[in-house]
Amino acid sequence: MAKNSKSARASHGTPAVVALEKSGLPHTLHPYEHDPASDLSYGMEAAQAIGADPAQVFKTLLADVDGKLVVGIVPVDRKLDLKALARAAGGKKAAMAEPAAAERATGYVVGGISPLGQKTRHTTVLDESAQAYDVVYVSGGRRGLDVGLAPADLLALTGGTTAPIARD
Questions:
Q1: Cβ neighbours of residue 52 under 8 Å, at least 6 residues apart?
Q2: What is the pLDDT of residue 53?
Q3: Could you tell me if 96 and 85 are in contact, meaning their C-beta atoms sit under 8 angstroms apart?
Q4: Distance between CA atoms of 30 and 87, rounded to whole angstroms?
Q5: End-to-end CA distance of the chain, in Å?
Q6: Global pTM?
């Protein structure tokens, strides 16, 4: 169920939330108090704060695949398999993008990079494990905000595909 009140838009009007609202697709907003002193990763902090299984909360990572930025979306309790991402994106070699490059390309800060509403649309690959859930949670475009939506809707909004890109 979308939260579409003016107060929700005013307080959470990130490009990701704006893109969701504009799409009309069902979604939920999950704001929480980000603790900069937390020893948890951003993703694990989000999972704990919103009370979701870490396997259902996904982090958005950018990698350089053969000179092109590619978005990989994997569960927060797993790692991105760079070789698998390169294969899924039709490339040969992948390396994690520099944080500053990821921020410039997406318009978001590390720890709040959303796959939605990025400045430029990038090839996007969602780990296939997302298909096991009716709803997955991704960053809403800032630290302290996640959004819940159906994996199929996430793929539709990003033009993404699924592949096995996560590893333990």
A1: 46, 137
A2: 97
A3: no
A4: 33
A5: 32
A6: 0.91
